């Protein structure tokens, strides 16, 4: 039995359409299943909204802590400052000088380094998950180094990590702006 080419194409098209229709009319792809899929995808997206909201709250909290840190340095509130410095913090100055937690506190206590004023021109915090926040800022730092007044315009990056329920500064790096 010989079929014309047009007849063969019509039969192939009919079979394809029939299989596609059958596929979408099967119980597996019914309206109820589609509703369940939409519900599942919606519920899957809800934690992402909560994470974004939590991230914004953590960013604001750490940004305030960042400003408090500068105030504590300028007013020599070393207990408050010490409470946010991680035991393994690396505090890197614009000239390459690296201080540990103990050195930061001791140098402020002994007036080897003193912060007279820190004027933050801009600062932005970005949360990465719920355990780390990076602060990038720019400011004018008025300090004394062994009694000699100095002033620097700096760009800096600070990394804060949540330890249990409190935030700790784990790294700080600054560079001079010309």
Structure description:
The chain is globular. The chain has four helices and six strands. With 178 residues, the protein is an alpha+beta fold. It has one domain (35-176): Nuclear Transport Factor 2, Chain: A.
Unreliable parts: 18-25, 48-52
Gap between N and C termini, in Å?
89 Å
Query: How many helices does DSSP assign?
Result: 4
Mean pLDDT: 82
**CATH topology group:** Nuclear Transport Factor 2, Chain: A
**Structural class given helices, strands, pairing?**
alpha+beta
Short description:
This protein has 178 residues and is α+β, with helices and mostly antiparallel strands. It contains four helices and six strands.
What descriptors fit this protein?
single chain, 178 residues, alpha+beta, Nuclear Transport Factor 2, Chain: A, six-stranded mixed sheet, 6 strands, 46% helix
Question: Helices, strands, pairings?
Answer:
Elements lengths: L4 H21 L5 H44 L3 H7 E8 L5 E2 L1 H9 L3 E16 L3 E14 L2 E16 L2 E11 L2
Parallel strand pairs: 1-6
Antiparallel strand pairs: 1-2, 3-4, 4-5, 5-6
